[in-house]
């Protein structure tokens, strides 16, 4: 396994299984004696099979010896670290490494689906498996203390993606890595700006990301789409302070190399910075009047995900959206009708047809050809089924579990989506190599015969999915 692919190893394959445990009420001296006898540096305290705390040799030194306490009078619960930071055994290694670096800890308890202890993972176990990986970049982001440092790291993310594309990594994992690293750069930037220049800022707000960023589906050179939601009863002074903060953040984000949104969907703009009540009114307008512009704005906003601040605002708005859509499905039907307008570029006998004129001659726009239809069509069906969280792949699987899609449909749709996204990434890398601005356009002459065949199959799957949407949303009645 390459160093790059190690990052996507499930934690279950790396965790140590022979974990020494104890009861929280057990005498501390007895546990310390067992640690010495076994030559181990930690013991996990469990209750009914579930880990609730951990005692390390550092705890014995700092909390007992250095504090001058009598260990004979102490129980494990008196010194254990609790609540415990845990990770699911099916999570990837990169998530474990992020948690350890973020929480400044050296080990994680691994739990199964029922929350029971199944192993333990230490940072030394993980780092021993790697020689060169995104882990180092992730650590550098967490330690960055200036916009200049984050600007350099933003460029490193691009360089890392270029490197990983040739490593055999799966498209879904690669996209997830890009999204995760970009999340951390933005979050770190916000944290530094807030700590240094806005320590008095209210806690009653959320900075949310939208669109592909909200779904965690970014590729290279994705522009920013974000907004702010704040409490209804903030004072005028608090709102003004929040306005200054949002302008500072977005301008700094542009300064480190993240392009501004051409459509102005950024928290620095007043229309994308509103109170919770105001956002509900805006949503009511979008949902009750599904014009093309309102469909575009609503679709972008429905992918909201909290990156910084109070996530309660996100949860309340998602609940509000679900309730309104149940009462009025016209918006989703109109959204689906908009999706089927983007016809895949397939000609006679299923041949992929490139643009024939102008500067785009010989290319196809991969987003318009199929990516948009899949992401937006899946989103419309997921919202109808009450599924809001997660990216496109997760929503497809959720629709399969809900019986909306069968397993064959879900598998084919995910395969088509992954292939189209991988081609878009290739198109962006090609543009960078040639000194052009990255875009969604791919020259067909850069594909071999097998790759063109896969592209044709992916576009045929998009076409079949659009027909499914027509039937599912009864678009013939809407003239779609």
Compose a concise summary of this entry:
This protein has 480 residues and is α/β, with parallel strands linked by helices. It has helices spanning 3-6, 28-38, 57-65, 76-79, 93-103, 123-127, 134-143, 147-165, 171-197, 211-215, 236-255, 276-288, 292-301, 312-327, 330-340, 366-384, 392-401, 407-433, 449-472, and strands at 21-23, 42-47, 50-56, 86-88, 107-111, 117-122, 205-209, 226-230, 273-275, 305-309, 363-365, 441-443. Helices cover 53% and strands 11% of the residues.
Question: What this model shows, in words?
Answer:
- This protein is of the alpha/beta class.
- It folds into three domains: 3-127, Roll (CBS-domain); 134-327, Beta Polymerase, domain 2; 330-478, Four Helix Bundle (Hemerythrin (Met), subunit A) (Up-down Bundle), CATH 1.20.120.
- The protein contains 19 helices and twelve strands.
- A four-stranded mixed β-sheet has the order 9-8-7-10, with helices on both faces. A three-stranded mixed β-sheet has the order 1-2-3.
- α2 links the parallel β1 (21-23) and β2.
- The longest helix has 27 residues, at 171-197.
- The radius of gyration is 25 Å and the shape is globular.
- The two termini are 49 Å apart.
């Amino acid at each position: 396994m390459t160093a790059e692919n190690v990052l996507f190893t499930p934690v279950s394959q790396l965790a140590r299984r022979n974990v020494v445990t104890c009861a929280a009420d057990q005498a501390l001296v007895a546990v310390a004696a067992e640690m010495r006898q076994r030559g181990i540096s930690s013991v996990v305290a469990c209750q009914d099979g579930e880990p609730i705390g951990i005692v390390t040799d550092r705890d014995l030194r700092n909390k007992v010896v250095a504090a001058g306490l009598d260990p004979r009078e102490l129980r494990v619960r008196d010194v254990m670290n609790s609540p415990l930071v845990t990770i699911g055994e099916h999570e990837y290694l990169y998530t474990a490494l992020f948690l350890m670096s973020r929480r400044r800890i050296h080990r994680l308890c691994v739990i199964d689906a029922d929350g029971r202890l199944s192993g333990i993972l230490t940072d030394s176990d993980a780092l021993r498996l790697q020689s060169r990986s995104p882990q180092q970049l992730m650590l550098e982001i967490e330690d960055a203390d200036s916009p200049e440092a984050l600007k350099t790291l933003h460029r490193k993310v691009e360089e890392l993606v270029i490197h990983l594309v040739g490593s055999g990594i799966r498209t879904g994992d690669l996209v997830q890595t890009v999204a995760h690293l970009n999340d951390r750069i933005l979050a770190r930037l916000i944290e530094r700006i807030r700590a240094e220049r806005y320590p008095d800022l209210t806690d009653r707000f959320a900075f949310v990301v939208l669109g592909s960023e909200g779904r965690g589906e970014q590729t290279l050179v994705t522009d920013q789409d974000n907004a702010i939601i704040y409490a209804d009863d903030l004072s005028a002074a608090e709102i003004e302070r929040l306005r200054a903060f949002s302008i500072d953040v977005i301008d700094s984000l542009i300064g480190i190399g993240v392009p501004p949104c051409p459509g102005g969907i950024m928290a620095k703009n007043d229309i994308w910075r509103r109170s919770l009540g105001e956002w509900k009114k805006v949503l009511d307008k979008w949902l009750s009047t599904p014009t093309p512009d309102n469909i575009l704005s609503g679709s972008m906003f429905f992918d909201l995900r909290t990156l910084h601040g109070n996530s309660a605002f996100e949860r309340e708005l998602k609940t509000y959206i679900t309730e309104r859509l149940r009462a009025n499905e016209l918006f989703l039907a109109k959204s689906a009708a908009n999706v089927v307008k983007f016809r895949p570029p397939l000609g006679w006998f299923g041949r992929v047809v490139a643009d024939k004129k102008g500067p785009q001659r010989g290319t196809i726009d991969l987003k318009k050809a199929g990516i948009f239809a899949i992401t937006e069509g899946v989103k419309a069906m997921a919202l109808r089924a009450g599924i809001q969280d997660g990216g496109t792949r997760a929503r497809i699987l959720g629709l399969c579990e809900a019986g909306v899609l069968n397993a064959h449909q879900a598998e084919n749709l995910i395969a088509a989506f992954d292939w189209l996204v991988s081609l878009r990434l290739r198109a962006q890398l090609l543009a960078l190599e040639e000194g052009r601005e990255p875009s969604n356009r791919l020259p067909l002459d850069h594909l071999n015969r097998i790759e063109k065949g896969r592209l044709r199959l992916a576009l045929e799957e998009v076409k079949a999915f659009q027909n499914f949407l027509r039937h599912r949303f009864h678009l013939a009645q809407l003239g779609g």
